[in-house]
Amino acid sequence: MRYKFLLMVGCSALLSACSVGPDYQKPERDLPPNFVASDVLSVLNTDYGQRGVLPLWWMGFHDDVLNNLVERAINNNLDIAAAYARVKAAEAEVQLVGADARPTIDASVSGGAEAGRDFRPSRDDATETSLSGAIGVAVPLDVFGQTRRAVEAAQYAYMRAEDELQGEVLDVSAALTAEYLGLRGQQRQLALLNQSIALQEKTLDIVKARFESGLAPELDYQRAIASVQSLKASVPPLLEDLQNKRNRIAVLTGQFPGYYEALLREEGGIPVYQAAIPTLMPLAVVNARPDVRAAEGRLKEATANIGVAEAAYYPSFSLSQSLQIGLTNASSVPVAQSLIASFAALISQTLSYGGGRGARLDIAKAEAEEALANYDLALREAVEDVELALNAIKASSARQDYLSKSVAASARSFHQAQTLYQQGLISFLDVVDAQQDLANDEQRLAAEQTDYATEIANLFKVLGADVPSKTR
Q1: Whole-angstrom Cα distance, residue 110 to residue 134?
Q2: In angstroms, how far apart are the furthest CA atoms of the chain?
Q3: 469, 165 contact by CB (below 8 A)
Q4: pLDDT 10s digits, 51-78
Q5: Nearest to 4 by CA among 137, 123, 117
Q6: Contact, 58 vs 409, CB < 8 A?
Q7: pTM for the full predicted model
């Protein structure tokens, strides 16, 4: 039996040497050699290029709280945990699909007993027992590669799941960083707003004193009250946003809302990125982006599934080897044994399938076409994402320069207006206008600084920055 089994395995290897369906070939695409806004990357690295790119990009903000939160998010985020579970399921699917190509061994045992009386004088009661068993080995022959293509598709699905996991880690780290930067930015805006309120309350005290002494009309006094109350009305929305961001950060790190109230309630400055940024070309970006790799993985999987569908048109083969054992014992009669071995081949072919095979092949080809279109779209969107991020950074940098100059001018204007009003040379309306201009410019500058920092974080995301894999 041993030699027959080896013969079966050898035949299986010889007959399983080809696979129907197309082999995957990476589509050749002419990507642009450079980004249109590639000069922005050079500008960003003017001050920090010599420091090199950090292995963990968010550490370039030099904020220990942020570093700790990102680490917690990578380890505890539930979207990442779900993606990791999908990787494990895809790995098991490879084993499951591959099991169809392995030999199967079956064993069965049956037995019985029959008792009776022999009415001849010379015989006692007699009992006859029987026992029979069979052991069978079946080796499937993947002649046209249906199983091999199915395993190939499952392997591509597994690699795609890994890329999607990597993409989830990148998305979560970027989202957590953006939320944290937004939190710090809004805390700065709230602090500036409280300073503006305190400043206008001092102005209100001056106007009130002048009004009560008859040196200023009631109109000035009411305008001062309205100005203070208008500024105070801007506080609740900021407090609401801050609370929402703390809650969102908690959920991103796998916690319930409220977990970081103590840690994140105190104001912190807006972190500034102080490290080099990778200067990549479009081809390097699309090769680094997990979402683009996952899109190509879907194309690979769909291509392999065409082979699975095509193989359904051909017959399936299986070699089997069986050994049957029989044993009978009738009272004192000597034991009789029989061993019967058999070797057989099975060819199975469905002659008519009501058009189902053709439909499945058409579906597989259509899914491959869809996957190719999605892959091409992913390439273009990846390049577009980088262009959008670079343009946003460039525009934000320019706005910060203008707003910084505007804040300085508004501050001088407000102080001059205060002095002139106390001397009775201008109306209170001029003071209110100057004060509002200063408050608005300070708020806009803080918001722009926050946007700039979050755009830096987004740039690392769209560049496909490397991040540590999820491990458990």
Answers
A1: 9
A2: 148
A3: yes
A4: 678 889 999 999 999 999 999 999 999 9
A5: 137
A6: no
A7: 0.83
